Amino acid sequence: MSLTTNWIEVCDKEDIDEEDVIRFDHGNRTFAVYRSADSDYYATDGYCTHEKFHLANGLVMGNIIECPKHNGRFDYTSGAAKRAPVCVDLKTYPVKVENDKIFIQID
Fold first, then answer.
1. What whole-number distance in Å separates Cα of residue 27 and Cα of residue 69?
2. Residue spans of beta strands (DSSP E) within 13-58
3. 53: which of 10, 38, 69, 105 fits an S-S bond (Cβ 3.0–4.6 Å)?
4. Sequence-separated (6 or more) residues with CB below 8 Å from residue 97
5. Which residues are registered as beta bridge partners of 24?
6. What is the set of domains in the chain, with CATH numbers?
7. What SS3 class is residue 86?
């Protein structure tokens, strides 16, 4: 059985400020795409695993995204849940930059 993976263009790399996050919708799915202080890029599912609230409205602090609804926190580099009320990790996605464009790989 062969798995098909797709690289989807998100935006220009400069469209995300350092230590920030943007929302990216593709089809019926939503993602959060992050830029670290070192200008590395990361992607996770867009909604908090505690309640379906979009993380792009949250606060980025270092490698942590804080959900704006109940202040749960995740490490966006690994998806790990870091502070209650969240206890389920986020799914993460590979990211690449080519020709100053950000792409995420979704299955």
1. 25
2. 20-26, 29-35, 41-45
3. 69
4. 13, 41, 103
5. 31
6. 6-106 (2.102.10.10)
7. coil
Residues pairing with 93 in the sheet:
43
Total residue count of the chain as it appears in this document: 107
44-81 burial: b if 16+ Cβ within 10 Å, else e: bbbbbbbeeebbbebebeebbbbbebeebbbbbeebeb
Pair of tokens at residue 86: 């969240």
pTM for this one? 0.92
